[in-house]
Amino acid sequence: MKRIFLFIVTNLAVLVLLSVVVFVLESVFGVRLPRGSLGGMLVFAAVFGFGGALISLALSKWTAKNMMGVRVIGEPQSEAERWLLGTIGRLATKAGVGMPEVGIFDAEEMNAFATGARRDAALVAVSTGLLRGMSAQEVEAVLGHEITHVANGDMVTLALLQGVLNTFVIFLARIIGGVVDRALLRNDREESGIGYFLTTLVAQIVLGILASMIVAWYSRQREFRADRGGADLAGTGSMIGALESLKRSHGEPMPPQMQAFGINTGEPQGFLRLFMSHPPLDVRIAALQAAAHA
């Protein structure tokens, strides 16, 4: 219910902002936008904006399994696999979600991820490096972190946010292109000129970069919430210990398409920090310590 409310409010805010932009352009700057095309333009933007995000969400489990080489555990073949299935089942019950698919992927780096379009049909996978490099209590905390992502519906919320921002970028870029073409380049013809196409392209790139910053900011906030969830499910000390262990991790990182889903990711410097999907590990540890002493 909370995600639906957020989705509706965000969409209404976008529509209000777009209406204000159109009003200001026409009333203040005297730029006349073709009325007949605005509705169609918005539909076009929504179809393409949400289409890609929702298709990506629908295919997320299939993509993750194939990209990461995940082996889904059906019948456990070892005591470690039985422990993994039992622990995830217990945490899922405690968090109030259905039993997810459980998988293992071969990677030296300590990592784990959760994905899927529905809370009761998710996928939780861990790397062989994580199982080897952490204690049972730390692995349980990581699993709690991932189960919290599932319980919070983070994958769905992120896809909806991406869809709203994509729609905004596509629509507003074309509005900006029309303003430049008609007002600055004095193109009064019905068909769009070269100024429209070039300006729209540049505006879409710039707005897309800004939208990526917003998505990355939200992604960082959800990691803080998932860390707190892992601490609640498995203990604050275990969650902090798991994050400390991740600082010692080595090996090839997950592919860029998957890094936003993993618990462990790189920590770029400078301007690129604005595009980080995860807060730095030291910041996450400090947040858990502060919450424990609050």
Description:
The protein has 294 residues and is mostly helical. It is 66% helix and 5% strand. The protein contains ten helices and four strands; from the N terminus they run αααβαβββαααααα. The chain has helices spanning 2-27, 35-58, 60-68, 79-95, 128-133, 136-152, 154-184, 194-234, 236-246, 281-292, and strands spanning 71-72, 101-105, 112-115, 123-127. The protein has a four-stranded mixed sheet with strand order 1-2-4-3, sandwiched between helices. Helix 4 (79-95) crosses helix 6 (136-152) and helix 6 (136-152) crosses helix 8. The radius of gyration is 22 Å and the shape is elongated.
Topology, element by element:
Elements: H1 2-27, H2 35-58, H3 60-68, E1 71-72, H4 79-95, E2 101-105, E3 112-115, E4 123-127, H5 128-133, H6 136-152, H7 154-184, H8 194-234, H9 236-246, H10 281-292
Parallel strand pairs: 2-4
Antiparallel strand pairs: 1-2, 3-4
Helix pairs in contact: 1-7, 2-7, 4-6, 6-8, 6-9, 7-8, 8-9, 8-10, 9-10
